[in-house]
Every structure is written in C-alpha cells, then in structure tokens.
Amino acid sequence: MWSRFSRRCARRAAxxxxxxxxGAPAPAFAQQxxxxxxxxxxxxxxxxxxxxAPLKIRAMQDDDFDNPGFPSVEQGEALWRAKxxxxxxxxxxxxxxxxxxxxxxxSHPKFSPALNRVVTLEQQINACRDDKMKAAPWPAESAELIxxxxxxxxEARGAPVSVAxxxxxxxxxxxGRGAYTAKIGQFALSCADCHNxxxxxxxxxxxxxxxxxxxxxxxxxxAKKIGSLHERFRACNSLVRxxxxxxxxxxxxxxELYLAWRGKGLPVETPAVRP
Amino acid sequence: MLPLPxxxxxxxxxxxxxxxxxxxxxxxxxxxxKKTNGYAQLVMTGFSAAKLGGIDTPLTSALGxxxxxxxxxxxxxxxxxxxxxxxxxxxxxxxGDMGPSLQGVGARYTEAQLRQWIVDPGAVAMPAYHKQSGLxxxxxxxxxxxxxxxxxxxxxxxxLKTLR
Lengths: 275, 164
Hints:
The structure holds 2 protein chains of 2 kinds. Chain A is mainly alpha-helical. Chain A is built from 11 helices and 7 strands. In chain A, a hairpin with a 2-residue loop joins strand 3 and strand 4 (206-207). In chain A, helix 3 (70-81) crosses helix 7 (143-155) and helix 5 crosses helix 7 (143-155). The radius of gyration of chain A is 19 Å and the shape is globular. Chain B is an all-alpha fold. In chain B, helix 4 (66-74) crosses helix 7 (150-161) and helix 6 packs across helix 7 (150-161). The relative contact order of chain B is 0.16. Chains A and B meet through strand 3 of A and helix 2 of B.
C-alpha cells in the first residue's frame, strides 16, 4: 500500500515530468471559469479562489510538499487510523477505504436522516464519534477536527462540489441564500456586495475572489494557520463590524450549503492556500 | 547566429510575452470586467444617486471643513475610502478599486447627493457611514454608533465638493 509520502512523491515526479516535456518552469494553474449548473446562480462563470491568489501562493498550493496545509491532512490520516472513544474504534474500521470518503468530502452540507437536519462535514464527523465510537466531540476549530475535515476533503480533491438542495434541505438553502445578500454589521455590507459584484477588484489592497468554499479547510498565509470555513465567515463578519456567530450555528450551516451550491461544479481543492 | 546581447533581449521579450499570457489571472480578469462594468457605469453616470435622492439639509449647523474631511477620508479607522476608491489627495499602500475613482466627484454630484452617498448609499456595495437604524447584527463594540459622526460627515462632504 502506498503511504501518503510516496503518493506525494509520485505527484511531484509526475508534475516535474510534465514540466520537462513542455519545457515550462512550473505548471500554471490554468483554471478557466466553470459554467454554473443552475440558471439562478448569480455568477456567470465559477472561478476558484486560487485564480485570484498571487502566483507564489498558487504555486505553494499546487505543490504538496510546499503546501502548508498538508501537515493537517497528515494528522487527519493518522487520526483516521487511530482507535478512540469507549468503543475503541477507528474510522478506518467502518470506512475501509479512505476513497469511500470521496463522495462525502464533496457533498456536504447534507441532510442527515439520523439527525433530522442538514449537517456540515465537521458535524457529521462529530456525530460519528458520538454515535459509533462513543468518543467526545472535537471542539470547533480544534486541530483534530480541522485535521479530520481536511483529510476527508483532501480525499475528494479534484471531485466536483456537489450538494443537494431539494427536499428537507430546501428551507436551509433558502435561508443561506437570504443570508448571502443580507446587509449586516455597522458597515451594512453583504457577502454578495463583495463577492458577486466586485470579484477581481481590489479591496484594501487585496484582490477580492468569488468567495467559494471548495478549498476549505484552507491555509491562510497571513494568519499562518489552517482554518475552517466558519472561521472565515467569522473573520468576514468582523471585517464589516458584524457580530460573528458560533461555529456550526444554523445560520452558518445554511450559508455553507448556499455557498456549496453557488460553487457547484468547482473541484474540491483542500487544502487550499490563500493570502 | 545572433550576437549574444540581441539573443538575450529576444529571450527577455519572449519571457515577457509568456508572462502576459499567464492564463488564469487574465481569464479571471476578463470575466471580472464583464461582471463589474455594469456596476461601475451605473455609479459613474450618477444613476444610483439620482435614484437615492439626496439630503439637502446639512447634518450640523457648523460648516464642514475640507481639511478635516481629507484626514477623515484617509484615516484607516474612519473613512478608509482608499480601500475602495482612488483619491488623488490620499494615496494609500492598500489601494483598492472596488469603487470608482473619486476624481471629479464634486462635479458629478450635488452636495445633497454627496451627503446621501456618505450617510446611506442604500443598495450599493458601500458602507453606510451615518445610518442610525435598520442595521443588522452590529458587533457589540459598535452597537448604537455610526461609523462617522454628523460633523465628520459634513467635513467629508466639504472635502468631496473640492474634487472637481
């Protein structure tokens, strides 16, 4: 069986091989806009945040050795195999192949019949720990929860984001859509104000992206750490002087579902690297 | 065989061309331009402000001071206007271009319209600097406060009127 290290080595060798064949110095991340799947998507072409990042940071993301989010993915892989909780079970014992997580990594938030609500991947991981392992949930933004989320999402790397917004997920989706355009905080700005209308423009010296969620958990070079999508929501809220909400709050789960739909079709890029 | 300096300059030109063709960013920028032009034109023609109306009456009895206005416009914890707008008198290291340049803004709008823009520009993607009600989820430290005081609004309006 291949270790993660050897897989990373193989990827790098393959990338080098392509470079040598083309005589190019580095593989440019030639992401073209992906057409949105649904007509009511506010964007006419979906562009991943990496296309708006400086070249240096894009190169960092594209090289698994330089990507500073990888230690977290590797911690997640170790946790995946580690027995935990009163049941002394490991994730790997039920989910034999991590590849089986490819679907899970690209399709959350998702309605959970067991919990009778829409859950994020983080919440599903903790639900598994509680139900199957009899282990204490990992706290929001803990290294363990970010690592496991990053690991599962990384297993889905390259798979198109795909979420369901029908049935019981519909009201949650509509709540998220409303939250996206609601002007909040002392600045009275909405997510849409920056990320629908002004992507590609500069705000306070930084290029605004379309604000997609396909790279989370994502490493912030400025903050020097990997963080969850809800942590990013909290940072954006603070920027417009709005009260940040709790990780995993209903409003944030709804916003996350809407964002996944808004970026449906973009490849999962976890762990992304951003300025 | 070309002489060495000529070869080097040709190589440099080729590298520059390749850089100009760097695919992802320029593709992204092209799509961005398409998406944002409509908004920029809307703002530049004054359509939004006309729709907004204006605030004819100054918020304070004391006249606005354009010098103080410039300092408020430039201050990162006050107007921070350069985060989105080019302002010839207030260059910034963290320059933004989310909004249009403010060059000539005093000629494009009446004083009442300028006041409206600053107090509450409505649906436009710009902070409402003196909106006192109808705000949602304001962070505790800022609850019940406006970004600028009434006098600061008048100072900023006085400064913007000088941009002709």
